[in-house]
Design goal:
homodimer, 493 residues, alpha/beta, Rossmann fold, five-stranded parallel sheet, 51% helix, 12% strand
């Protein structure tokens, strides 16, 4: 166990009661303060089977209004969840600003289980640890308080508790086969747990070992740590988080100014022929993707009126409707805004074998949110790396990631805006906001250039679609999608 | 097959192409009109295996912007879904106002499958048909366009198609075991399908039989019917829906005026003793519920400051946190408002064996939405029956439903409001809106009286909690919860 975090001795009964009383009252008071401060609090209970994770959570939440917390029991992932990246089901559970989520078991348990069952190789374990550390850091960097408790009991205590639970038919179901296995292989488990705790003990989300030999004493430790954690986090509210250096291999991208738009055209007849052939090809690949369970994520960003919609349609036109979904991304709804900005994208990830197309994306963070001041400078500067990490996660999961910037020049946009304005059937496509955004063209261009430079990674590069001739852009998009999918299918053959 | 709805002869090639062209163009135009009209369109494709449901959907959606539709393939329910009522996973899929959902297989397939596998008894089938008819009617009554297509092919065509699909490894997965079984038992299946089509052929959501012997011809029929359906629905937009007579057995409820509040008190010492005993008892019952997989739904409505929060806490304090969830209900978010008003409650239903507590509920429809004019008179008048039907569905599923009205008199409310106002620690609990609602006390009382009379069904009766003494109300609530759970557990023993 982490030597520096072992709890003290269990206090005398009287002192214990007194401290417990004080900690409970303080927690009760703090729930409203975290609401005011919009502090999201994620409390992870990990530890031995029968160490009392559930019952400790039960005791703690008695001091919190039921409207302010959720408890999630993370049993084995469902089939739906297994078809998504490892972190998917944990990301799904993160609390809204001002609320608590208590997790009974989590990403530690899932990982150590897989190590013990020898499902994870050493290399996979190392990768997993990286994912987890990034996940926790992204949460704390984005203002989450993440508290990690490991409930520690000795083998003999575990044996005694399991025997007691098993003796009553109403509680026997609480002892799982895996708990029993743990008990039989206590030493081996302890080694695996110890290593995991060491590997994921970060300064922003350290582990706290809870001596769980006594119920009240366990409650006291957890409540005091929770109270202390909240108080510290609230003092830190105006935090400025270090911007990490990029560690991912980048592909060099041109500046938008340097992108040659002229001459990127296609003849009508050739367009029709190519479109038909490419769509047929893509349709066939979709079948193969499905069978091999390869997930595909296609993202669209670009200037207003650049032709994103029509481009997407030429992709989806080739696909089996049972195997894809288009996600139009508008400004976040309240429950989305109240969480990590990537939450609404994590929760929209496709199942493996499926294709998700995002019509506008998480890159809103470094474009509209940056320019309209919807997030702080520290937030959007940090986002390049956070997004690279997010896409790394998707890529490691096995996803093909294809990112398009649909590009036109300012003159073309004006012509299309005017056309829309003058054409009653197209008027719905143009709003005052489009005109306002147009005024900020230069600022957007700077932001887009920076985004292209900083987030075009080898595993998720940007592709520029020259779209003054929309047909040219559609054919190019189809070609790129086909090529990228083929590359991956060849690799996983 | 339904005789009156059999499609005509397949037209000559030239006419077919011409009509197809016209129908596609019209559908393309209509997508913006449905957006303006906020018309939600649910298109259900049922029919024989290998009849081309998926590919017909694929052809139709080529005429619709990918941002305006979703396609859902309803394969066999997942384990998560099986732990919820039958309609849960279909309700989850209903479109937002102004959008399409296309379902590839749905509640017909699931039902006829269960009939063919002899899982459903005659009585269960009859009940299922009732559920489905109510579900579809509730959708159409609430402004949904529900189009139901049955894709018909003859046995020899089915055989030929399946053979073709099976001959290519990239398409072979599309032929399921169940498709093969169907083909072998074509006649038997046809009988079951026919009966289902007859049983669920309603004037507001009739069946359309599509002759699926030819792909383009199938597309033409479906597209023309879709276009026609949308055009008719848009003309009906200012619809007034008949208010159905109540068919559910009701429990007689007192008027709020008649509820005796005086003397409903409990001594501190007795309270403590009772609370402890009742909570212990409830905790034990929770274990039994879990093992027997009985779902419990507890709902709270009541006057502001009546003590709902504290009451809920005394219930949850007794429960294992892994087995319950509290849902605080505020005004709906945009994506919730854009759907049937019960959608956000359907999607929050507990798994069997779990307890869901709703802090405010679907009864908002006949209280705040009625009084503030957030819905039409026709809407809230219809809601009593819609809610009774919803709760009937839950009750038939096996849920224990416990509905509380937490009651105080006007004077008590004023005292509590004033106390909150004057107490800095409680000020967050009182808002201007509370004072405004208080001014409408009489109108609310009328609405509540009507609600209690019309929705206190035998299977989901209201319970009034006299809460001038909050402790009295808590003990009463615990007693009722225990009693109702025990009744059900005795029954399912």
């Amino acid at each position: 166990m982490l030597k520096n975090r072992i709890p003290g001795e269990i206090p005398e009964k009287e002192e214990l009661e007194m401290r417990l009383d004080r900690a409970r009252t303080r927690l009760y008071e703090l729930q409203m303060r975290i609401k005011e401060h919009k502090l999201p609090v994620l409390v992870l209970f990990e530890g031995w089977g029968a160490s009392g994770k559930g019952s400790t959570i039960g005791r703690i939440i008695k001091n919190i209004d039921p409207r302010f917390f959720k408890v999630a029991t993370m049993s084995a992932p469902s089939e739906e969840e297994l078809r998504r990246p490892f972190l998917y089901r944990y990301m799904k559970q993160i609390p809204e600003a001002g609320k608590f989520t208590f997790l009974d078991g989590g990403w530690m348990e899932e990982t150590t289980d897989e190590v013990l069952k020898e499902i994870l190789s050493e290399a996979e374990y190392a990768k997993r640890i990286d994912s987890i550390k990034r996940f926790e850091r992204q949460l704390t960097d984005n203002g989450y308080l993440v508290l990690k408790f490991f409930m520690q009991i000795e083998k003999k205590d575990q044996t005694a508790r399991m025997e007691r639970l098993l003796s009553d038919k109403d509680t026997a179901w609480r002892v799982s086969e895996s708990d029993q296995w743990q008990n039989e292989h206590y030493k081996k488990c302890r080694k695996v747990f110890d290593r995991y705790l060491q590997d994921t003990n970060m300064s922003t989300s350290p582990w706290y070992i809870i001596d769980a030999s006594d119920k009240k004493w366990a409650e006291l430790q957890a409540t005091e740590l929770l109270v202390e954690g909240i108080e510290i986090a609230m003092q830190n509210s105006a935090h400025s988080v270090p911007i990490l250096q990029n560690v991912f291999p980048l592909v060099k991208m041109p500046k938008l100014q340097e992108v040659e738009l002229e001459g990127k055209v296609i003849e009508e007849e050739e367009y029709r022929k190519e479109l038909k052939e490419l769509q047929k090809k893509l349709g066939e690949l979709h079948n193969r993707l499905y069978r091999r369970r390869v997930p595909v994520i296609i993202t669209y960003e670009g200037w207003d009126a650049a032709g994103k919609g029509g481009n997407i349609k030429r992709i989806t036109g080739a696909l089996d409707p049972r195997g894809f979904e288009v996600h139009p991304i508008a400004s976040p709804e309240p429950h989305e805004k109240a969480r990590h900005y990537l939450w609404r994208f994590w929760t929209r990830l496709p199942k493996d074998g499926h294709i998700a197309i995002f019509d506008r994306t998480w890159y809103g963070r470094v474009m509209v949110e940056r320019l309209e001041g919807f997030c702080s400078e520290n937030d959007w500067k940090r986002a390049y790396n956070e997004i690279n990490e997010f896409e790394k996660e998707l890529s490691d999961w096995g996803a093909v990631i294809i990112k398009f910037w649909v590009h036109i020049d300012k003159g073309t946009q004006l012509a299309r805006f005017t056309d829309r304005q003058n054409n009653p059937e197209k008027q719905w496509k143009i709003t005052d906001e489009d005109w306002r955004n147009r005024e900020k063209w230069d600022a957007y261009e700077t932001a887009v250039d920076e985004m292209l430079q900083k987030t075009s990674t080898v595993y998720a590069p940007w592709h520029i679609l020259e779209s003054v001739d929309k047909k040219y852009a559609r054919i190019k998009a189809l070609r790129i999608v086909i090529e990228e999918i083929e590359k991956t299918l060849d690799r996983v053959k």
